[in-house]
Design goal:
There is one protein chain. It contains 2 helices and 3 strands, in the order ββαβα. A hairpin with a 4-residue loop joins strand 1 and strand 2. It is rod-shaped. The protein is of the alpha+beta class and 78 residues long.
Length: 78
């Protein structure tokens, strides 16, 4: 899966559990379904596991590489 963190959300119960790994989010979802909704197979409408909003981790090395290349090009003109 993509790097986390992930958020589990059940709009029926109006709960949101942030900052989870993928496996923690799945366990939270399954436990919530069983304890609150009565069955691990019960899927409330709108229930979801999503990646938390924020700076995507893949962008950091790409930006660093772009800055490195730009500095190398600029150093050729100095």
């Amino acid at each position: 899966m993509f790097p986390g963190p992930y958020t589990y959300r059940c709009p029926v119960c109006r709960i949101t559990v942030p900052d989870l790994t993928w496996s923690q989010a799945r366990r939270t979802r399954d436990g919530h379904r069983e304890q609150i909704h009565g069955s691990p197979l019960a899927k409330p409408d709108g229930e979801c596991i999503t990646r938390a909003a924020g700076f995507d981790q893949w962008r950091v090395p790409v930006i660093a590489l772009c800055l490195f290349v730009a500095l190398m090009v600029l150093s050729q003109f100095l």
